[in-house]
Write a structure and sequence with these properties.
globular, 10 helices, single chain, 12 strands, alpha+beta, 12-stranded mixed β-sheet, outer membrane lipoprotein receptor (LolB), chain A
């Protein structure tokens, strides 16, 4: 196996898992919008569904960070189950998570627990000791999403960039943004009162089509009309039918659980994320330069030397 294939395969599991951490919306959905069925927070005052989710959005946006425990299941031959836990911030964007699961087990050289650090537009994936042996002692794979987007625009090679990033460009969809998107669901409704880990919560759910998601997703505002059209066509070609979201809101108007589901021909990508300790100190320390290799720069060097082939 070439250097390109070895490194790419070693990091692929971690990248594929991370791409869905903060993406889109959850399992369930359906039903008619019932804006008259809502519940109050600590005041006990009756509120509409829209008022509750709006309050949850504001409180989540203000918190700017939380601790996260997530489980995810991806269908298909290349899928599997995985868990992630750690700290996540959305203003500014950052993450320090530990991941384990079948996506890592597929490669014997990957560590059993892989750490993922994200700061602004740069993601670092711990590729393990085996990678360090191949890369002059450097075990951290760096993915500069901004640089990759610029390179793709220059070269026109969108497929290469998608392969390298594994969809990490979608990771900027924070919990507050998910609640904002949920407000635009035409069938948002209150399901009922439930306990989550012993805490009293109110359960809500709604659905969005691909078109509705793109219209409400602020992270897509940077796209030109032609690019938005191409993205929509690509998602439909991939068989993505829509997004479903469920959220459980506590008496403090904060979501304590968010479930996400994306329907596809292979099945439904399912994610369940529990959030706690809102406003927790969210700081990350990026790996030192002498332990880091830049994936995009490495590919450029290999392409220049003609040693990029093979997998």
């Amino acid at each position: 196996m070439s250097i390109r294939g070895s490194v790419r395969r070693r990091g692929a599991g971690a990248v594929a898992a991370a791409m869905l951490l903060t993406g889109a919306v959850a399992c369930g959905g359906g039903g008619e919008k019932n804006d008259a069925t809502g519940t109050g927070a600590k005041t006990g005052k009756k509120r509409s569904v829209t008022q509750v989710i709006t309050a949850a959005y504001k409180k989540t946006a203000e918190a700017k960070s939380a601790r996260v425990n997530m489980t995810m299941s991806v269908p298909g031959a290349d899928g599997g189950e995985m868990t992630m836990s750690g700290i996540m911030g959305w203003d500014p964007t950052l993450m320090d998570m530990t991941m384990k699961g079948s996506a890592l087990a597929a490669d014997a050289d990957m560590p059993k627990n892989a750490r993922i650090i994200w700061q602004n537009d740069v993601v670092y994936v711990d590729a393990g000791a085996a990678a360090a042996k191949e890369m002059d002692g450097k075990r951290w794979m760096k993915l500069d999403l901004g640089a990759m987007a610029e390179e793709a625009e220059k070269s026109g090679d969108d497929e290469l960039t998608k392969e390298l990033t594994g969809g990490l460009e979608d990771m900027n969809q924070d919990p507050a943004q998910q609640l904002a998107m949920l407000l635009d669901s035409p069938n948002l409704k209150h399901v009922g009162s439930e306990k989550i880990d012993g805490a009293d919560t109110e359960h809500y759910k709604g659905t969005l089509t691909v078109e509705e998601m793109m219209a409400t997703n602020k992270s897509l505002d940077v796209l030109e009309p032609k690019e938005r059209k191409e993205l929509l066509a690509g998602m439909k070609k991939a068989g993505i039918k829509g997004y479903d979201t469920e959220v459980w809101v506590n008496e403090d108007d904060l979501p304590v659980r968010m479930d996400v589901g994306i329907s596809s021909p292979q099945g439904t990508v399912e994610m369940s994320m529990k959030l706690s300790d809102y406003g927790a100190k969210a700081e990350v320390e990026v790996p030192p330069a002498n332990e880091t290799f830049d994936l995009m720069e490495m590919f450029k060097e290999l392409a220049g030397s003609g040693d990029l082939g093979g997998s």
